[in-house]
Amino acid sequence: MTSPESPNQNPPSPERRSSNPISRALPHSSDAERALLGSMLLDEAAIGEALTILRDIGEAAFFFEKNATLFQHILELYDQRKPLDGVVIKDELVRRGIFERLGGYEFLGELVSAVPSALRVRQYAEIVRDKYLLRDLIGAAHRVMESAYDDRLPAAEMLDLAEQQIFAATEKRVTAHAKPLPELVDQLMEMLRTRGEAALTGVPTGYYELDEYTCGLQPQELIIVAGRPSMGKTAFGLNIAENMSVLDSRPVVFFSLEMSQQQVAQRIVCSRARIDAHKMRRGMLGHDDMRRLNQAGEAIGSAPLLVDDTANLSILELRARARMYYRKYHTQAIFVDYLQLLHSPGVESRQQEVAAISRGLKALAKELNVPVVAMAQLNRNPEDRKDNKPKMSDLRESGAIEQDADVIMLLHREAYYNRGEEGAPEDNTAELIIAKQRNGPVGTVMLTFNKQFTRFDNHKPGGTDYVPATSDYGTSKTGSPF
Q1: CATH code, 238
Q2: Co-location of 160 and 275 in the same domain
């Protein structure tokens, strides 16, 4: 419904003009801007309606500078809880010395006459917002183009900047509106009836006691699984990824910076079939072993699990790949094995580099709204203690990991330190120490570690293993998106 601009309209501000990379006019609607401001002058209630649409954008939503200025002053008066109408606003503009600069009576009169009533204020605000979003997208593309021509950033960083700019522009959404409490309670009760007793607010891990502590892996959270070498960090991460993709049909991506794709596949198949991987490497498999491998292969055949084994990844490259997989497969969790194998070029020290990596992974979790699970190495301090149990302070190379992580889990197997000792009892118990959880309790989860299968299982007191059946998860297969 855009019409030629009124002769009384001020031109767009220099900032709005400078974001235009070409000679064509940027998207705008002078009619919608006038109708929106006119509605706000006619009815004070319309100001609140407009705010629900434009509150996160503010006066930047307006293309014309004088419209943006008037909108800003109306909101200031509204915030001061003054009774507002056209007369009060006119007096305030005179007092502030901007009435004539905006166009005086003629300007305000045009706005009031632009609409018969304020009933459609939401529609006007939505048009103004949508035009702003289009301008913002054009501006993001222009900034990317200018940065590319400037040629100061390395190509990898330039691509990351481009993805950030476009992703941020296209992912903007309107803030949700308030709802009455009775409606919220009805929704809550319906959700409780629908989801049943065992439902979680996050992505289930397949480990029931862990899910009790965390309510599943939560979106936007950075989860660190740390341990000394050979504690089973990779196995634990793969087991969770397998549970999500095979049992729950959730698309996930596993970045393996240490093992190849074939090695990862071999681990998953042997773990699921409960076959000793060493026997398979040596070609010592019997008929029963082959039967179980075939069954495991069929179960995994439609699992939406991506394995990326690109070596020497930087945090910028990993984020770019994660965005690509998210857009293509709608991944619901990201695994990184392991954090210290990533690098971030251009930093002065290893501590600063790990801090940049940690911040990058946290930012990725928030950007894609998925949990990011990163395995991490601990230093040698646990081996100098009598009980060998790890602590958060043992995280290697940077305290920034402690600060950025939402959940820190430390793997500990006492049997690892007792191996080779005469008379030492066979013990396959593993402890998963939840040392930090920003939004939940801390504690220790008991697991059973089957070393020959490189597999962690749910643990029952008394030393017996508990291997959950697929039906225990209460989910159904939806098919692979690949």
Answers
A1: 3.40.50.300
A2: no
Distance separating alpha carbons of residues 136 and 142, to the nearest angstrom: 10
Hey, what long-range contacts does 439-444 have (CB within 8 A, 24 or more apart)? Answer: 439/218, 439/406, 440/213, 440/214, 440/215, 440/407, 441/213, 443/213
In order of 30, 74, 107, the CA distances from 99 in angstroms are 20, 13, 9
Q: Which residue reads 């210290």 in tokens?
A: 340
Is 2 domain-assigned?
A: no
The pLDDT tens digits for 338-364 are 788 888 776 778 888 888 888 889 988
Distance CA 314, CA 311 (A): 9
User: How do residues 12-58 score in pLDDT, each as one tens digit?
Assistant: 654 454 455 556 788 888 888 888 888 887 777 777 778 777 766 77
244 secondary structure, DSSP code: I
Helices (H), 118-276: 121-150, 155-170, 181-195, 208-214, 233-242, 261-273
- Note whether 281 and 404 are same-domain residues: yes
Q: Kindly state the tokens that stand for 96.
A: 């502030």
For residues 157 and 267, membership in a common domain is answered with: no
Same domain assignment for residues 74 and 211? no
What is the residue range of 32's domain?
14-170
